[in-house]
């Protein structure tokens, strides 16, 4: 059985939970409390990228020894990232067409252009930016494993990525239309951070270094917060996410490292607790798409069900139904494979 990194599993399970909460609360921004929860949970994508980079480094740091193995890895990785998204797209469209009273499409459009852009990840449905990001980072990962071995090259790349991210931080508006093509640059800083953390975990990184990194990230965020407040720039995190700038990245990195540090407490290693969050972690990527369909259904039926008026109830509904569907899919797949084997 493959060894699991329980702190990473815990962090990824927190991240998918945060995704569900932010998406539910985005339809309930009716008071300052809901807005605060929605805004400050936006660190979760950084947590996803950090987990992905950490696990890929653990598995494949010494894997890319020739072009053939690298190309095979690319093929498998891209299939793993694209197939769940294509299944989601087909399923959501089908449910929308067959049951329009229970599904609104939630961002889907009845347009061949929209569908083509969605499939190619160049536009269309908004949530396909995440599969595109992971494909971009997967493409970079083998290159980064080579760069890390040559410190001068990785330092040059870091300087480039930091300067570009600084540009996104300084400019007063982000050209949303082209963010898909450049977002990999600032996000790659998180990928490199995860690779660094894996190498330090093997050396049993000193807890003081965690505190220092968390404090530095938080300090950058507070400085930018006060500066943007003075300049009357938006303080809403999502406005700094496409592509991410240092205002978003510093806060999200701070929160990611805080949760990662918290995940190391011994009680979370208990068998029953770990089984729950390990399962959620394993299903995090499919859950990202499943919960979107469940959210669509929830938004439709809540109009006639009073008990779904609260965002807390909506979150519990979406979370339980999404995890249950994921569990049933896993059981069905296991049954099919066992019958074929």
In a nutshell, what does this entry contain?
With 341 residues, the protein is mainly α. Helices cover 74% and strands 0% of the residues.
Q: Biggest sheet, in brief?
A: none
- What is the N-to-C order of secondary-structure elements (H for helix, E for strand)? HHHHHHHHHHHHHH
Number of domains: 1
Total of helices: 14
Which structural class do you get from the secondary structure elements?
A: mainly alpha
Tell me, rounded to a whole number, the average pLDDT.
91
Report the end-to-end length measured between terminal Cα atoms. 19 Å
The amount of helix comes to over 70%
Low-confidence stretches: none
Percentage of β-strand residues = under 5%
What keyword list fits this structure?
74% helix, globular, 14 helices, 0% strand, mainly alpha, 341 residues
Explain what you see.
- The protein is mostly helical.
- Helix content is 74%, strand content 0%.
- The chain starts with 5 loop residues before the first helix and ends with a helix.
- Helix 1 packs antiparallel against helix 2.
- It has one domain.
Q: What are the SSEs and their pairings?
A:
Blueprint: H1 6-25, H2 32-40, H3 44-60, H4 67-98, H5 112-120, H6 129-149, H7 151-170, H8 179-182, H9 184-202, H10 207-230, H11 246-262, H12 271-282, H13 284-301, H14 311-340
């Amino acid at each position: 059985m493959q060894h699991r990194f329980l702190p990473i599993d815990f962090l990824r399970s927190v991240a998918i939970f945060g995704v569900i909460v932010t998406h539910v609360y985005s339809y309930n921004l009716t008071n300052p409390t809901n807005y605060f929860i929605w805004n400050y949970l936006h660190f979760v994508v950084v947590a996803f990228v950090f987990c992905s980079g950490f696990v890929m480094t653990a598995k494949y740091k010494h894997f890319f020894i020739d072009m053939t193995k690298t190309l095979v890895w690319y093929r498998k990785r891209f299939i793993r990232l694209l197939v769940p998204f294509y299944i989601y797209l087909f399923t959501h469209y089908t449910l929308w067409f067959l049951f329009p009273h229970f599904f609104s499409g939630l961002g889907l459009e009845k347009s061949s252009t929209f569908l083509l852009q969605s499939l190619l990840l160049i536009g269309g449905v908004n949530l396909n930016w995440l599969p595109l990001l992971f494909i971009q980072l997967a493409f970079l990962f083998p290159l980064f494993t080579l760069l890390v071995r040559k410190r001068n090259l990785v330092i040059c790349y870091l300087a480039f990525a930091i300067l570009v991210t600084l540009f996104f931080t300084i400019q007063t508006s982000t050209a949303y239309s082209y963010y898909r093509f450049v977002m990999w640059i600032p996000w790659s800083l998180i990928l490199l951070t995860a690779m660094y953390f894996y190498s330090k975990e093997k050396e049993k990184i000193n807890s003081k270094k965690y505190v220092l990194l968390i404090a530095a990230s938080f300090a950058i965020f507070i400085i930018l917060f006060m500066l943007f407040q003075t300049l009357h720039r938006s303080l809403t995190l999502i406005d700094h996410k496409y592509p991410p700038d240092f205002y978003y990245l510093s806060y999200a990195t701070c929160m990611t490292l805080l949760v990662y540090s918290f995940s190391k407490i011994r009680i979370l290693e208990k068998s029953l607790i770990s089984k729950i969050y390990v399962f959620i972690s394993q299903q995090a990527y499919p859950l990202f798409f499943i919960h979107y369909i469940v959210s669509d259904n929830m938004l439709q039926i809540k109009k006639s069900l009073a008990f779904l008026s609260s965002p807390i109830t909506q979150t519990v509904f979406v979370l339980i139904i999404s995890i249950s569907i994921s569990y049933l899919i896993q059981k069905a797949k296991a049954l099919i494979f066992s019958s074929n084997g």
